[in-house]
Amino acid sequence: MSWPNVFAARIRNLFLRNRLDREMDDEVRFHLEMQADDNERAGMSPTDARYAARRNFGNVESMKQQCRDWRAVTAIETIVQDAGYALRMMRKNAVFSLTVIVTLALGIGANTATFTLVHGLFLRNLPVFQPSQLARIDIVRPTGEELGVEWGMYQQILSQQRSFSGMSAWVPGHKEAMADNEGALRFYNVALVTGEGFQVLRIGPHLGRLIEPYDDVRGSPPQGWSAVLSYSFWVERFGGDRTIVGKTIRLRKTSVTVVGVAPADFQGVTPGLNPSMYLPYQIHPVLDGDTRDMDYGVNAIARLKPGASLASANAELSVLQKDIFERFLPPRLTHAPAFQGSMLHASPAGAGLTSFTGKYRQPLFLMQGLVAIVLLLCCVNIGGLMMSKVYARRHEFAIRKAIGGTRVRLIRQFLLESLVIGFAGTALGALAAWFGSAAAVSFFVDPNQTERITMRPDTTVLFVTGVLAVCATILFGILPAWRAGRAEPGGLLTSRTISAGRRQIAARAFVPIQVALSLVLVAAAALLSQSLIRLRGENLGFDAAHVVTESQPFYHQLPQKDDDTFIDVYQSMVDRLEQLPGIQSAAITGNLPTEPGVASRFQASGAQNSSDALIAYNHVGPGYFRTMRSRVLAGREFERTERSRTVCIVNEAAERTLFSGGQPIGQSVVNTTGDPKLPTAPCQVIGVVEDARSRDLREPAPATIYFPVTKEAIPVHGNFTFLIHATREGDAISGYRKAAAEIVPSIPVMRFATLQQQIDEVFGQERLIAMTTSFFGTLALLLSAIGLYGLLSSSVTQRTGELGIRLALGAHRTKVLWMIQKEAFILLAAGVILGWALLYVTVGFIQGMLYQIRAFDPVTLLVTIVLLSAVAFLAAFFPAFRASRVDPIVALRYE
Amino acid sequence: MERKEPEKTDVLQGTLVLLVLRTLEALGPLHGYGIARRIEQISRDLIQLNQGTLYPALTRMELEGWISSRWGASEKNRKAKFYSISAAGRKQLAKETHEWQRMSSTIDRFLGAELAKDLS
Predict the structure, then answer these.
(1) Which residue of A320, A412, A512, A756 is 20 to 30 Å from A791, comparing CA positions?
(2) How large is the angle between the packed helices B87-119 and B51-64, nearest 10 degrees?
(3) What is the pLDDT of residues A343-363, one digit of tens each?
(4) Which residue ranges make up each domain of chain A?
(5) What pTM does this model have?
(6) What domains lie within chain B, and their CATH numbers?
(7) Which residues contact A378 (CB under 8 A, 6 or more apart)?
(8) Chain A residue set in contact with B, beta carbons under 8 Å
(9) Nearest CA-CA distance, residue B70 and chain A, Å
(10) A539 by DSSP, 3-state: which?
């Protein structure tokens, strides 16, 4: 026996050891006393007698050690033997083993993949020094929503606070265009950070240095703007070039000098939003091309002084709050009802700025809950299957018991079989999760995210998976193992008919649990799918299916710049497109309904008493509404000649907000903020169009004002997007290629997508959850069917004798058929009741995800129950049919 | 002339199991000391049982499932661990007995042949 084995066995024996040693002492003492007594009787003095006894016995300690070693050797040997036996049994029942392993792999894989996301997005600490000291400072609404702070506010807190050793401000999700590897311009995530940012985190560079306070100077630092690349961007874009430090990168409005590369494990402060590059905060007016002293909302990250607590920091902030709110927030905001109860609050930020991903929290946690149920179901199902295996092998167990196998040995051996299955299933599941989580992550991060994020299970996740696997194995293995251990040699002798009378109560309990869990999953799948169908079926106010978009065209690379000739290029493209076959109409727009839009405050200029309102605006070319198939309710669309923002079109919502039901055509609206991107003069309303949903398509259409496309609109949107209405997508794409080749041959063609595809992307999470739930719901039904079928089949086999007697005595075959079916339906009814209760508990989680449907929708529930019943009927039919066909003669001979 | 005490032999490797199983089969449940005494008595004290080796053997046999044990009261009403032979133990006994007999008859034959050679 090699020393590691001995070592392992010693550890195993550690717990038992005290008791065994004590017993051994008792036994030796008894032996020595008996021997001494006998010696005395033979005439020795009591002292001599005791010595002689000891001498005769030999070394007690070495004897005890030998005993311990024997126990250790045997334990290892039996485990090796049992493992070998388990593997042989698995090979013998290959189909059974494979079913069980794949079932478990599905459960474990789904859980691991989901937990990878939950962990990566919400739980994992940033790879920084003492993350527990990090805090974020926000205006927090009573709802818990974290609003960040405004720049002026940030500086005020910075100068007055005493609780933090350092503070920094981050703008984690800035977008900036850079040339990619092929030289084409594309948008990347960029994080803006104040000079103290990396000092607060206390991380060091992978290469060069990180952003320092002297990089972050208002105006322009003397050495020019610096940039720190993220590790992944450095590797992907620059091939990990170690001479990158000192090189410059061209951005849209300026150039930056690379000063260093961030460490590989640091992916920014916002999980799921990996920036390509970190830039000094003060660069933002340059990037935006906005010379005004515009202030940003920022995320403040601070490090608590050693010994300071969040509670003391919050006490300090609450003292500062009143003054800060008064100085930096407009009264209009502070007096708004929605703002009441908001406060300046510091909260833990060790895991980063997770609230940015907040809207994904609920769906992700819901999904985690669902896959946990799936795993539970898998365990129950495997437990049921193993149970029937125990029953099938009961003779083997009884024989082993009869020839001296101990109960412990049988239990251990069966548990080991479970363990082997558990191990195989987990390995397979973890492998699936490795790829699955990478695929799933795209559904849970910002759909406007330009970066591809990969999230892979890390050691923590794998550890949790391991624990999960052990729990699962115990869960499905313990009851069958206990059952196997209870096998009695006597059972061999009793008649099968009699023993079959005692039916498998424990195995039966598995079926209602399976049915209950399936009910929850199927109901959830039905509800989520229905709400997705409702969401997609909503009247969006435009025809999504037939509009193909061509987004992000690089028209800014054209020589015609920032004036009407630039617009002319677009217009000639539109004109050419409309001549091409298969294309009904075409137009350009600043924003797509699926994109985040822009908004400002407007007022009806005639009515002095009416207040201004926040209204979204967009710039659209002539033919936009025709192309989108949005109805013009009054007035008309823009003409080709209209190139100034003296005219505008409002939608129904804006009409209601601004003109409160009055006739809007001919009236004027005016911008009240003085935003230089918008006209100062009033503009005349020439049309009213139907509401079209935008951005968050779950919400009713926002009030919107449409302006014609003008040269002033170029800074608002950058480039315009083409909309092409065509019956076939292919016509639109080939048409665009043709027109572009003629008119703008120097411009690369970008991505085509129908609006419907983009909407599906926006509903990515809903789709993913509905899809996975449907998948697992179907799986659950299948598992339940297998469970029920397995149970009833083995029950019929057991009762062959009994059924034979019944039939011989004249029982009708249909009666026997119904007897078995009835059994199935009793189990089903128990499961439905249990499932109903379970649904009642879990329904709260689902409700938030549903769109215009109640979680306890009676029709859905009824359909679910009918579906389950149908599956149960099918699963029960074959065994029942077999039972009714039993030949009495054969059955009786079967004894 | 003083009669020399017969020389005591150590119990032969591998035969201890056989002796214990046979003892338990013949006498029923016995404690460790009882087994030791019995072996010494039967062999008329010719076999010197190193009593310390008995217990590791008992432990091993119990783990093999040949014997089982339980605590009970001894003849003097003291707490003692009693061993009894199991079904697997009886099988093992039969096997070892058979092997032993075969072995001993082989040796007998061998010795007999040697003897015949000496005589010739």
Answers:
(1) A412
(2) 130
(3) 899 989 988 887 555 566 777
(4) 3-77, 131-350, 360-536+764-893, 552-750
(5) 0.65
(6) 9-119 (1.10.10.10)
(7) A103, A104, A106, A107, A472, A783
(8) 23-24, 26-28, 30-31, 33-35, 37-38, 56-60, 62-64, 66-67, 69-71, 74, 402-406, 409
(9) 11
(10) coil
